[in-house]
């Protein structure tokens, strides 16, 4: 993503919004719908389009649980459907080729380490880490090793956790782009504490700061964010908020996305009066510290294989998977486990 000092970049978060009906469709039909969304996003002014990549076995426990924001499918079945809908050679390869031909940057959120390895093979130029994966240290270590730009969201972390993650990445010679985010779908504007953007600019001077916005009723939150210095704007993108799927209801339509882009690029946001009701305070704790989705989307640690008593735990013995609510050790505590000797 072009990160020029004064040029605001727009990411159309298509995610899984090419799935818009309950019945399962063929891979070619899913690809056709994904390409149609890419074309619409480009015509709406997006600099980049972002999807989500799943590898079921590496991401989630085979347990039935339902997230509050989408109760039409349990999470395991939903991830399984998404992996089946997007085979590497028949979906991701032609989709990226189309984006390259249309000169709109393609990238995708790897929802696990194996998904990141798949996308590295595909040749993405930028990484996006969803807020539920920000504490997945093995994933961050791999992404940092590629020396490509990494964008992270703050929607499901506390200030203390974000400090730790940014320090961890800086130690790996990676300075992430940080998107302020409130993980609600959709998000009411009054839930924002936009002074956090000012706080991030002070706390993380090496990082470009942006805004991942799930509100749908007004462009004002984006206007305010840009006025405060956000330089990357990410919004969910769909043809209809009434479509079937997890993220459509928190998405902008092509017409709405274009209106937002045109308004910002006309510099009219500079004239916007900041509403103090939505500014909050710079030192306020992140909403992510107590976000209702943490237990569903954050990851915990499991062993990749059985280990004998007396074994020393190595990094390669561990795996980060969802959901944290069914596990005992948060993925962010990885370094507290590696090097320990098992008693049983």
Percent of sequence in beta strands: 5-15%
Helicity range of the residues? 25-40%
Structural class comes to alpha/beta
Distance between the termini: 48 Å
Alpha carbon gyration radius: 20 Å
Q: Name the overall outline.
A: globular
Helix and strand string, N-terminal first?
Answer: EHEHHHEHEHEHEHEHEHHHEEH
Strand order of the largest sheet: 3-2-1-8-7-6-5-4
What's the total helix number?
13
Major sheet summary line: 8 strands, parallel
Which consecutive residue ranges, at least 5 long each, have pLDDT under 50? 1-5
Average pLDDT confidence is 93
Assembly level? single chain
Number of strands: 10
Structural account:
With 344 residues, the protein is of the alpha/beta class. It is built from 13 helices and ten strands. It has an eight-stranded parallel β-sheet. The longest helix has 17 residues, at 27-43. The chain is globular and about 65 Å long. Residues 1-5 have low confidence and may be disordered.
Tags for this model:
single chain; globular; 13 helices; 344 residues; 14% strand; alpha/beta; eight-stranded parallel beta sheet; 35% helix
């Amino acid at each position: 993503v072009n990160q020029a000092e004064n040029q605001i970049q727009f990411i159309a978060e298509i995610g899984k919004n090419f799935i818009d009906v309950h019945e399962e469709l063929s891979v070619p039909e899913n690809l056709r719908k994904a390409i149609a969304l890419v074309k619409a996003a480009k015509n709406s002014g997006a600099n980049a389009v972002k999807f989500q990549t799943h590898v079921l076995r590496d991401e989630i426990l085979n347990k039935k649980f339902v997230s509050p924001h989408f109760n039409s499918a349990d999470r395991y079945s939903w991830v399984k459907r998404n992996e089946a809908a997007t085979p590497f050679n028949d979906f991701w390869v032609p989709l990226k080729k189309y984006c390259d031909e249309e000169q709109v940057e393609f990238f995708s959120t790897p929802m696990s380490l194996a998904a990141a390895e798949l996308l590295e093979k595909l040749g993405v130029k930028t990484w996006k880490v969803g807020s539920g994966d920000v504490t997945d240290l093995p994933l961050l270590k791999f992404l940092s090793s590629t020396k490509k730009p990494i964008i992270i969201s703050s929607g499901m972390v506390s200030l203390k956790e974000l400090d730790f993650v940014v320090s961890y990445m800086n130690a790996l010679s990676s300075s992430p782009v940080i998107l302020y985010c409130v993980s609600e779908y959709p998000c009411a504007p009054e839930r924002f504490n936009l002074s956090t953007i000012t706080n991030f600019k002070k706390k993380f001077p090496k990082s470009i700061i942006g805004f991942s916005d799930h509100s749908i009723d007004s462009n004002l939150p984006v206007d305010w964010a840009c006025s405060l210095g956000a330089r990357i704007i990410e919004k969910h993108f769909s043809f209809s908020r009434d479509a079937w799927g997890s993220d459509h209801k928190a998405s902008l339509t092509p017409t709405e996305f274009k209106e937002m882009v045109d308004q910002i690029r006309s510099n009219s946001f500079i004239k916007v009066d900041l509403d103090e009701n939505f500014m909050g305070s710079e030192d306020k704790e992140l909403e992510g510290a107590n976000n209702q989705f943490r237990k569903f989307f954050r990851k915990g640690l499991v062993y990749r294989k059985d280990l004998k008593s007396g074994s020393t735990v190595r990094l390669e013995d561990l795996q980060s998977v969802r959901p944290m609510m069914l596990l005992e050790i948060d993925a962010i505590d990885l370094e507290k486990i590696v090097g320990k000797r098992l008693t049983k």
